[in-house]
Design brief:
110 residues; 6 helices; mainly alpha
Length: 110
């Protein structure tokens, strides 16, 4: 899957074009699509209608959803940079915490 796919497998433009959150259901998409088509009919705004129609097709197509179910999400570049930065400077515990760990009673079996 591409880096720009959210967890539901739809391209981000699909839900944004319809004014929906990324977690929208197909039923919510259909309702938003019908409302948007009423506001932007194809004879008055053909480009906007084409965008809405493409977004609705993405919601109706089960292939992206099936692909995302079998493939783990790909890490984004920003997350990779955070991981690299965190690995270069591991977390440090304060001295009092380390001393407290050393003085903690030990659990003994037997």
């Amino acid at each position: 899957m591409a880096d720009n796919m959210p967890f539901n497998g739809l391209p981000p433009a699909a839900h944004l074009a319809l004014g929906l959150p990324a977690t929208a259901t197909p039923e919510e998409a259909r309702a938003a699509y019908l409302e948007a088509v009423r506001q932007h009919p194809p004879d008055r705004e053909p480009e906007r209608f084409r965008e809405l129609h493409t977004a609705m097709q993405a919601f109706c197509d089960p292939l992206p959803l099936a692909e995302s179910a079998f493939q783990p999400p790909q890490p984004r570049a920003a997350l990779e940079a955070i991981i690299v930065a965190a690995a270069s400077r591991p977390p440090r515990l304060p001295t009092r915490v380390l001393l407290a760990l050393g003085n903690a009673p030990q659990d003994r079996d037997g």
